Structure formats: C-alpha cells, structure tokens
Amino acid sequence: DTAVSQTPKYLVTQMGNDKSIKCEQNLGHDTMYWYKQDSKKFLKIMFSYNNKELIINETVPNRFSPKSPDKAHLNLHINSLELGDSAVYFCASSQEPRAYEQYFGPGTRLTVT
Amino acid sequence: QKEVEQNSGPLSVPEGAIASLNCTYSDRVSQSFFWYRQYSGKSPELIMSIYSNGDKEDGRFTAQLNKASQYVSLLIRDSQPSDSATYLCAVGVISSGSARQLTFGSGTQLTVLP
Predict the structure, then answer these.
(1) Distance (Å, whole) CA B30 – CA B70
(2) pLDDT range class, residue A58, cuts 50, 70, 90
C-alpha cells in the first residue's frame, strides 16, 4: 500500500498554463506539506496544512494555491506557470503539527517549457 | 536567516570504508536534527534523528550532534554500493504556533565504489 501518493508523476506544460498536482495519504496523519526541490536538490517547504487548516505559508508567489478538502488530501494549484517553476514537488505528511518525522510522496516532476 | 549547510560533494568512498557526512546549522535554538537519504529520482527517506548531544547509533549508521559547535554528522560504517545516494541534513524549527517545520541542507552526494 502506498502511504503518500501524488499524481501526476510527470507534468510537462507550457508557460502561462494552469496546472494542479494532487496528493493523498493513507497514514491517518493530521498534517500535510508541500515542498519544492530545485535542480540543485535544495528542498524547501512551501505550505503545511493541519486537518484542512493552513498552518505554514512560506514566501511563495501567490500563483501557488494549496487546497485541502480533507485531512487526507492536499492539492497544489499553480496559475500562470513560469520557467522557474520547473522543479520536483513533493508532498509529505506527519502525524501531527508538532511531529518532525515526515513521510514523503514520490514527487511530481514539473517541466515548464 | 536560518540555514543548514552541507558539502555538496560528490563524496566517493570505497566499499567497506566509513563515509562521513557533515552538516552545520545557524539557528542556535534548534533542538531536532535529521538525516534523510534520497536515491536518484526518488523521494527523501528518514534514516536518522538525533535530539541530544553525543552519538546515536542505528545499525551501520551513527549520527553525531554537537550543539555548542552547531554541527551534526552522519557516519556510515562498512559502506555498501547501495548506500550511494544524496544525504540531506534537516533541522527542525518551530514555526507559527505549535507547528514544526524542517529546514533542509542542499545535500551531499555519496558514491560508494565497489
């Protein structure tokens, strides 16, 4: 069974388009995260939700909008895609907001052309 | 600015040797430290956590923490080719309210040569 899953695994799109990435976890965790990993492997947190409530919102362009319909799902919508958005986006979850141990999904490789 | 710094490598060691990976952090109040392993094209996987000064051993892995020097390291004994991966150091910080978040270093690429 996949603990944290993401779709799609690969996403190739053109500048200016709008796209979404979906994440689901079946671990029963309360807290979910979105990370961006650039080409130099630098992994940086973008957002975190706890039981559908936004709790961490790092300095991210407002073209990125997370949505959590329930505590098992966290989606990321990106408007007006730019070349610099090309990266691998990882979803992660932890048992609760005070837990540091995080479990990562397989990642979505986004390429903007 | 809270930062976590690692040598990007690549670090190459022969099979059976000890691999030593180092990490420094800038936030003195940090209390929790983690090592994640990331194989090429895969997601990060937590392999070690350490919260107190000193050493913590788990199988072939030993994490070492020195809060006075703001330094954390990972030793891999009897290195195997399967240990070849990027190792990410992460420092836990308290975010808004009670939320916790991880600040990652840029990773050290390790290659174990057969």
Answers:
(1) 9
(2) confident
